[in-house]
Amino acid sequence: MSNPSVSVVVIAYNDAGLVGEAVASALAQGPVVSEVIAVDDKSADGTAAVLDELAAAHPRLKVVHRTENSGGCGTPRNDGIAAATAPYVLFLDSDDVLPPGAAEALLRAATAHDAQVTVGACVRRELPEGNDVPWMPGLYTAGDVIERPADRPELVRDTLCVNKLYERAFLDKHAIRFPDGRFVYEDFVFTARVLAAAPRMAVIDDLVYVWHVRRSAAQKSISLDRKDVGNWRSRVAAHRTAEEILRAASPELAHACQVKFLEYDLRMYLRELGQDPEYQAAWWTLTRDYVAGFEEAAVEAAAARARWIVRVLRATATPPPDVQRLTRFAAEPPRLLPPYAQVDGVPVWSQEVPAVLDGLAGLPVADLPVTVDAEPSGALLRVRVHDLYGRLAEAGPRTAQLRFLPRGGGEPVAGEPAALRPAGDGVWTAELPFRLAPLAAAGRRAGRRGMQAWDVRAGVECADGSSLLTSLRPQGSLLRRRALPSTRYGVLLAQPYRTAAGSLALRLAPGAEGALNLVRNRLGRARMGRRSR
Fold first, then answer.
1. Which of 68, 271, 471, 485 has CB atoms 3.0–4.6 Å from 330's, for a disulfide?
2. Contact at 8 Å (CB) between 260 and 157?
3. Domain named Glycosyltransferase 2-like: which ranges (predicted)?
């Protein structure tokens, strides 16, 4: 490969309005990308015509027109690999983009380290806000060269195929392709096949992929479309296939794959379980049957919150009466709501479901799923901190403090601490300043214009030097919208609200512009709610 280059494979289906931006970002990578191969999966909206028009203007763009729709993403990606002629392949979805210089940075590292797979940074960009959330932060170390994936089994947590450059000869040698047809979560299986083939992997810290997340889109992406149990069934099936592939190659990778499912996939779907009894029952049966086959070593290796969820799943054949309590526990950060039951002095989930909460005594205070309630008290916020089987009492809670975290990322804003007072029955209380005008001003200084969105957290400091940070459970009239006079903005609209995980969050709309954005935001959510019904 005296002049190595990259083939960028773009897959598209009914995405005429966005595919042009994706293709443009690939062509803009420069001469290091010798060809962009766009595979149209028999679209019905004009996507094919858009691609043909672009190809007429850009010789490096080749269009593959499928004669029938495949029903998934795997087949068109396989078509792209088959059409590729460059030594390296990079994948791109039609509604995402490659940042400038991504292909060159990946190729430079791949050739320097003779790596069959090269990994770069990826962000999930929430649109239209434009907030970037790093994908799998801390999983990779820039500059690493990983000789054997089995030496780093935690790599199974990164199931994306789009933030990586692949040597095409490596894919061909090991017959690595995506599952064909309507196979949802095809990335899981492809990534498992790649790791099972033991490639040499190089890691760079350059941003190489921008994954666009459009939650208000009329047609949600597969990963966001979790309205029925079919999506979960597809995810379980893909995970089962991936785990079987890894087990044949490496027990360490298979073990890590099961732990990842418990700590990530299971909790993500559980916290969005909803209140439909039919869905809950189907989800519970499917999940319980699948987890029943997991190695006990994988369950024991999982974090306490995931391990306790498995204990509850195994303890009852149907969703427990307090299943909503379980969804709150699966949230991030986790909260275990009272009451706190014990059997013979041993902490259990509940009297009805006496699943043992093993390892609770050894959890650091920072990891305790403590519940903190919040309700208005004039201009203050009254918080109630609940003990957890005596663990918090051992640490000696002393002070509480509000912390406001910008939902799009950035530096938090801390409130003033106040002393916690014992209130009996394992509860401590404090009244904390809830000053919203200074918070809005801090958001403005940080460059947030228009409507601001904040997660509200409570920090608890203890006498033994330990501390914890957790979410707040809104109570009473806290969620009432209020208009506050402001010398700076004239009026400040404040809308406390409950997140999908049941936690307190806050929208602030400073001035007329912010108020207009708040109204637009509410109207948009209302329209989406009508469509979803």
1. 271
2. yes
3. 7-134
Euclidean distance between CA atoms 7 and 168, whole angstroms: 9
Question: Are residues 503 and 331 in contact, defined by beta-carbon separation less than 8 angstroms?
Answer: yes
Contact predicate 86/191, CB 8 Å: no
301-313 per-residue burial string, b: 16 or more CB within 10 A, e: under 16:
bbebbbbbbbbbb
Q: What is the CATH number of the domain that holds 132?
A: 3.90.550.10
More confident residue, 445 or 448: 445
DSSP string computed for 294-325:
S-HHHHHHS-HHHHHHHHHHHH-SS--TTHHH
Q: Which residue has the tokens 């799943």?
A: 313
pLDDT of residue 451: 85
Report if residue 219 sits inside a domain: no
pLDDT per residue as tens digits for the range 167-182: 999 999 999 999 999 9
- Does residue 487 register a pLDDT over 70? no
Rounded CA gap, 7 and 175, in Å?
A: 18
Kindly list the distances between the CA atom of residue 351 and the CA atoms of 166, 169, 312, 433, in Å, as whole numbers in the listed order.
Answer: 53, 59, 12, 38
Query: What is the DSSP pairing of strand 473-474 with strand 372-377?
Result: parallel
SS3 string of 111-164? HHHCCCEEEEEEEEEECCCCEEEECCCCCCCCCCEECCHHHCHHHHHCCCCCCE
d(CA 224, CA 284): 20
492 within a domain of the structure (yes/no): yes
- DSSP H or E run through 377: strand 372-377
Domain hosting 297: range is 229-362
The pTM of the full predicted model, rounded to 2 decimals, is 0.89
Give CA separation, 441 vs 66, 147, 510, 512, in Å.
54, 50, 9, 15
Distance CA 77, CA 173 (A): 17
Together in a domain, 56 and 88: yes
Whether residues 297 and 208 share a domain: the answer is no
Name residues whose C-beta falls within 8 Å of residue 128's C-beta, 6 or more positions apart in sequence: none
The structure tokens listed for 13 are: 């289906």
| CA separation, residue 394 to residues 182, 343, 420 (Å) | 54, 20, 15
Residue 75 vs residues 7, 335, 353, 428: alpha-carbon distances, Å: 17, 42, 45, 58
